[in-house]
Design goal:
It is built from six helices and no strands. The protein has helices spanning 2-25, 79-92, 94-97, 122-125, 129-138, 166-181. The protein binds heme C. The site of heme C has 25 residues, from helix 3 and helix 5.
Length: 184
Amino acid sequence: MRLFKQLVGVFVVLGVLVGALMIFSYDVVKIQWVSFMGLQPSYSTQEQPLPVPALSIPVEGPAYILANGAPNNPVPSDETSIARGAQIFATNCVMCHGETGQGNGIVSAFLVKKKPADLTGVLVQTKTDGALFMSISNGVFNPQNTLFPDDKFSGQMPPMNENLTVRERWDVINYIRTLLATGQ
Ligand code: HEC
C-alpha cells in the first residue's frame, strides 16, 4: 500500500512537470525568447521584397542594373544554351506560348485580356535580346487590368525573375531565336 502511494506520488509529480512543459510547448503561455533574427532587415509574407541597394550587381552575373538600360546577351547561342533553353521553355512557357511558341498553349484559351505573344512573330523577333530579357524578368505589367484589380499581372506575361536564374533567362532567349530560324 505504501509502495502504491509512493507510485501515485511519483506520477502526480511527473504529471505536473509534463503538464507545465506542455503549457510552453503549445504556446499557452507565450514567451518572447530573445531572438536577433527578427532584428535584421527582412520582409514578411505578403510583403514586397526590399528594394535592391543602389549600384549593386547580382551575384548571378549581368542583369538589369537601374539606369543602365537593357543588358546585352552574354551567353553565346551554342548547342548547350539552346538545348537548355528548350527545356526551360517546355517547363515554364509552353502552357501559355505553345509548343511552337505561337501563343497557342493550353492556358492561352483562359487568358481573356491578353493572348500570349507569338514568339515567332516579327513583333517579338525584332526586339533585342536585352528587351526580351526585361519582359521575361519583369513580366508585362498592365495597369489597365480591371479584371484583376489586385494583381495587375494576372492573365498577363508573369515576371519570371524569381523562377529562372539570369543564365536560364538568356538560355531561353537563345532558344526563342531558333523558333524563327526553323520557320515554326
Ligand atoms: C501565364 C501565361 C504565360 C507564361 C507562363 C509565359 N508567358 Fe510570355 N506572355 C504571356 C502573355 C499574355 C504575353 C503578352 C503580354 C502583352 O502583350 O501584354 C506574353 C508575352 C511574352 C513576350 C513578349 C514580350 C514583349 O516584350 O513583346 C515574350 C518574349 C515572352 N512572353 C516570353 C515568355 C517566356 C520565355 C516564358 C517562359 C519562361 C513565358 N513567356 C511564359 C503569357 C505567358
